[in-house]
Design a protein that fits this description.
Strand content: 15-25%
Radius of gyration: 46 Å
Order of helices and strands: HHHEEEEEHEE
Distance between the termini: 92 Å
Helix content: 10-25%
Number of strands: 7
Strand order of the largest sheet: 5-6-7
Shape: elongated
Oligomer: single chain
Number of helices: 4
Length: 160
């Protein structure tokens, strides 16, 4: 029983309530008031006093500010990027970077790293008569791309 009495004695002080409106104010609030009455009620400050703390003042919110639509400038056009042709083992059409002509590259197969690695592996494994086969197979060789007009080397497609 003592815990119940201690709980009752620990209740907060409830003597500070909001002011209760009179019957006439209550009726005026729930009836459709005039626009002037509505403005008066909305702009009326409500003050609440809390003991041992600051005074809190509530005010009506200001009307929203309407911002006109602003036309934004169009974004700058993107720069055109020209992707080069991927040069592999077949001749390809492109613009020569040296003579600036539209060409189809000439391809030449040359012995590269892959040919020599296969030859070495076959020789070490004791299959030395077969170690010369990679020198005859184009799919093991690197590919050079040259311009047919100016004969400059444009690209080397390496297999390894």
């Amino acid at each position: 029983m003592s815990s119940l009495s201690s709980t009752i004695s620990q209740r907060p002080d409830t003597s500070h309530h909001y002011p209760v409106p009179s019957y006439k104010e209550h009726q005026n609030f729930h009836s459709s008031p005039s626009t002037a009455e509505t403005q008066r009620l909305l702009t009326m400050d409500l003050q609440l006093k809390i003991p041992n703390q600051q005074q809190v003042v509530y005010q009506a919110q200001p009307a929203p500010i309407i911002i006109p639509n602003v036309v934004q400038p169009a974004p700058a056009p993107a720069k055109k990027v020209i992707m080069g042709t991927r040069l592999t083992e077949v001749p390809a059409p492109m613009q020569c970077p040296f003579c600036q002509q539209q060409i189809v590259t000439e391809t030449t197969f040359i012995n590269g790293k892959k040919v020599w690695v296969i030859c070495g592996v076959l020789g070490i494994c004791g299959i030395w008569p077969c170690c010369l086969i990679p020198f005859c197979v184009n799919s093991c060789k690197d590919v050079e791309h040259r311009c047919p007009s100016c004969k400059n080397l444009i690209h080397v497609h390496k297999r390894m």
